[in-house]
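sanity check this record:

:::
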Amino acid sequence: MALAPPIAYLLAPLCLLVGSVLILMADVTLPKRESGSPLSWWLALLFVLVSGASSFVVGRDDATQVFAVLAYDPFTAYVWRLLLATLGLVVLISQAYISHNVKEAGFFYAALLLFGFGALVLTACTNTIMLILAVDFLSIVGYVLTGYLHDDKRSTEAALKYLIYGSAVSAVMAFGLSWLYGITGTADYELTARGLAGEWVWAASRTVEPLALIPMVTFVLAGFAFKIGSAPFHQWLPDAFEGAPTPVTASLAIIPKVAGFAALVRLTLVMLPETLTLGVWWRWPLVAFLSVMGMFLGNLIGIWQTNVKRLMAYSGIAQVGYALIAVAVATERSLTALLLYLTVYAIAEMGAFAAITVMSTHARSDDLADYRGLHHRAPILAAAMIISILSLFGMPGTGGFIGKLWLFTAALDAGRGWLIVIAAVNSIISVAYYWKVIQATFVHSDPEQGRIRVPNATMVAVTIAVFTVLALGVYPNVVLRWAEAAVHGFFQAG
């Protein structure tokens, strides 16, 4: 197959970039009554769909370097389509919320598309300089979106905490990567791996003790931990979830995590392979430590939460802990399981946040007490909430069960049974706070509460999310085949 021009491989992110610019132009040039939420929303949805379609322009088997700093391969294609599907659902659930709560709708949707653009670029990075630029771009747009409710002190406070913490951790990550560049003389992942193996660009046969590089890779891992919301670099997350506009909370819960995991997997397999002593230490104990800490901290602190958005924040921290098992194991099967797990996680989170977004608009509050009797007031939302929560827990019959089953089986095959025991214990702990949502939604009721209208766009998102979660619980084979093809290239090349 003839190689496509480089621009063809970047059509998906470029569509989001163009869409963002056009929305901003429409917002500035058209009268406000014409450039408000409806037009901006339609343009955002249109460009997300066009971006998703453009990801199929080049074949799935293509694997190529783009401008020497990005890679397009089946792994990139899979993650891009997952991110774009998630972004599309975020746009759907945003429509009613933004029209009621946000004045500058055009800028909001433009920033949301830029958020997606940054995530797509981060996924494809093969160069440490480009990695830093993508992480910082994604973070800056995240700061803006988190503080978008200008009149809400909680939103402003959340954005400031996110900004201060993110800037500090990004600086630490940049310091680690600059250290790495100074040692190897290159920013390319593959050339860096060769340098760490002793093939130095500037001094052949010179060796550096791997133990001396542990601080450097720890700084790099801290940056990834911040981006995916992993403990112990999670302190910004609950406040950001609580203070941000609810559609933004949904974005923060999924998009940076999926993109961050994709970037982490690529760096782990290409720059720090298991053939390097440093690569082994990267997996054990560094990534494994983050996994265990995330599971325990997320689940234990989640028990005490009464705000549903903070509860989902700690649930996400725990989910990241489970997913990091796959990176610590880093086998072909475990990373296939990781892609399946991230897919199920993203869809389940969207189902839950579709309900939370409607409730945030209706009740002007995110307290669990406001969910009393939701099964009477909005049965569709209650069903979406419960099915999503059960999937996050790993209930048989949902996609979450299949994702955890594959994840735990891959760890067992790699001889890491102790991680499975820890994960199983934490899954049991998580029942304590997931039950609080189920109890508020189905057990408690308030006869004085009226019915809740579900916007049409949100109904579409809810239907897609619930159907997908249940379908993957029964028949995950199609997604598994795509995930296997996406990961296989790394190990075939190795």
Observations:
- The longest strand covers residues 64-66.
